[in-house]
Amino acid sequence: MNGARMTDQQLTVLITGGAGYIGSHTVVSCLTAGHRVVVLDDLSNGHSEAINRIERICERTVTFYRGSCLDAEYLDQIFSEQSIDAVIHFAGLKAVGDSVRLPLDYYRVNVAGTVNLLSAMQRADVNRLVFSSSATVYGVEAEIPYRETQPRGSTTSPYGASKAMVERVLEDLALADPQWSIINLRYFNPIGAHSSGLIGEDPHGVPNNLMPFIAQVAVGRRPYLSVYGDDYATPDGTCRRDYLHVMDLAEGHTKALERLNFRGFETFNLGTGVPVSVIEMIRAFEHASGVHIPYEIAPRRPGDLPEFWADPSRAKAQLNWTAHRGLETMMLDTWRWQSQNPNGYSSEG
Ligand code: WQD
What we know:
The chain is an alpha/beta fold. Helices cover 38% and strands 17% of the residues. It has a seven-stranded parallel β-sheet, sandwiched between helices. A two-stranded parallel ribbon has the order 7-10. Strands 8-13 form a two-stranded parallel sheet.
């Protein structure tokens, strides 16, 4: 696949899950690049207010359909009403811990939902797709830094397994039907928010992930952070991850969208290649925000790997993409979003 843009024309892109955290930032990136966006979201994780905020940021309208990828008739309606050129597919469940408790929900929404979407695309003769995958598919035994040439490994949760299954579905589809052009993006740890402070991460319930939890401690919604283990074989004993700015991640999707000019299936890591520990994250946030983050050391969280990060060189070479926003910007943008929206998108307390 060459890195050439598919087109300089305006594309109409259906973004499933476009009212969610990464989805909403990708909608902004696609609109900013001049494309037209249609969003499908069932609002189980996302927020309708995020669509309003996107329209304020971009001064463009977004066509919004509220619904699920599991509704085949609704999908057919969207494809018949909108002349879709390509799809960016985020819609899905993403909480690792929940997936262990509710595996059927995860396989139904993440795997069956994606197969349903692909079938609707086939019926509408739309065969360009960017898929939202995760570094978790490399599994527990993968060599660090993770490279796309490594095989998928043994995942530690139904969430990770569902992502690995969808990747396999997409590979097989591209092999069976050469009309398909599919780019599979494996995310590392997206954090941060759009610089306007108008959109950001607003998880329903208690945050599973580190960054939103720190941000909620900073605005007084949580008393302290629990650090899940400080006895790992890492420099300061806490886990290390490859955190990237969500707008860098979003721009990676727009680059991928504009390069769906080949036939087949291609995978790219979207990460910085730079690991950061939990303690370093706390210190970086405190430095950027000026807010002290109290924390306690708690037992390790089952399933956590000590450390992993990306080799992002393939995306640089073939998508002409690199993550260029640094850790301080990630923290400043997180803090601007959270301090301007202490209760996220809900205006009530
Ligand atoms: C990062 C580090 C925790 C919370 C997961 C999914 C991945 C993707 C991103 C969906 C770990 C520590 C966390 C807390 C803590 N999800 N931590 N206290 O686990 O690397 O990745 O989210 O796409 O697929 O696996 O991210 O932010 O949950 O944890 O100490 O309250 O922070 O132990 O070391 P993770 P995370």
